[in-house]
Amino acid sequence: MSSSDEIDDSAAPLIEHLAELRTRLIRSVLAFLVGMIICFTVATPIFNFLTDPLCTVLNERGQNCDLIFISPQEGFFVAIKVSLLGGFMLAFPVIAHQMWRFVAPGLYKSEKGAFLPFLISSPVMFLLGASFAFYVVTPLAYDFFLGFQQFGDSGEAVVGDPATSPGLSVVFQGSAQEYLNLTIKFIVAFGMCFQLPVLLTLMGKAGLVSAEGLGNVRKYAVVAILVLAAIVTPPDVITQLILFVVVYGLYEVSIFLVRRVETKREAKLRAEGYYDDEDATT
């Protein structure tokens, strides 16, 4: 009887945690659904905003900014994708708050002070990366892609030799869904790349990486960043170079931030009398 009581007592906290987790998840999902519904009602203005990089490039080339639906249901799925992206962005503060309310009770005061800044800086860095992709990288990418069109100054077919080859006009007529997929890919990829300082600093805070270790593997990081730039960006040197410079700069910033974390930790341990200078030098 006593053993069953002990099992019930030990299981009660777990059930309470699961119930709280369910409540937090339900609130997060409801916030996401509300944000999605709001964005669905204004999906057209949001999509028009997302087409600005393409329209700017086309206007500079003297072309109309026209996108087409290649299937009857494509317009609906475009609105759904816009709603998913916008709904998540609107609901993220609520989701982050629910995550914090679930995790915070199990953290010490010092751990709360360490975790909360990263929870705040993560969406900020994602927005910076997304903005960089939207306003800098995406126009360069579409300018590169649209450079393969083939038409005259007034939109007429390029005149060829009638004896060998007729005139040909190859003009961009983009699918709205394909354009949205590619644009979202750029936004998400660069947003995730800008999480590098947050991730490495948090790992440094946990003692998983060190500034010295990150510096020692710098040459491997350069190769990894070059591979990432080749995969994420279109095959033009300028865009790949921009991504490489930005991500490598973030890597160096991460080393600086991890070094600051280690300096603060060392100062705290020395003040508490736990740091041995002789062990540090050996």
Question: What does this entry show, briefly?
Answer:
This protein is an all-alpha fold.
What does this structure look like?
- With 282 residues, the protein is mostly helical.
- The protein has helices at 2-41, 43-50, 52-60, 74-103, 109-146, 176-193, 196-205, 211-216, 218-232, 237-272, 277-281; strands spanning 67-68, 174-175.
- It has 11 helices and 2 strands, in the order αααβααβαααααα.
- The protein has a two-stranded parallel ribbon with strand order 1-2.
- The chain is flat, with a radius of gyration of 26 Å.
Number of strands: 2
Largest beta-sheet characterization: 2 strands, parallel
Report how far the terminal alpha carbons are from each other: 57 Å
H and E order: HHHEHHEHHHHHH
Rg = 26 Å
Number of helices: 11
Q: Strand order of the main beta sheet, please?
A: 1-2
Please tell me the overall pLDDT.
80
User: Portion of residues in helices?
Assistant: over 70%
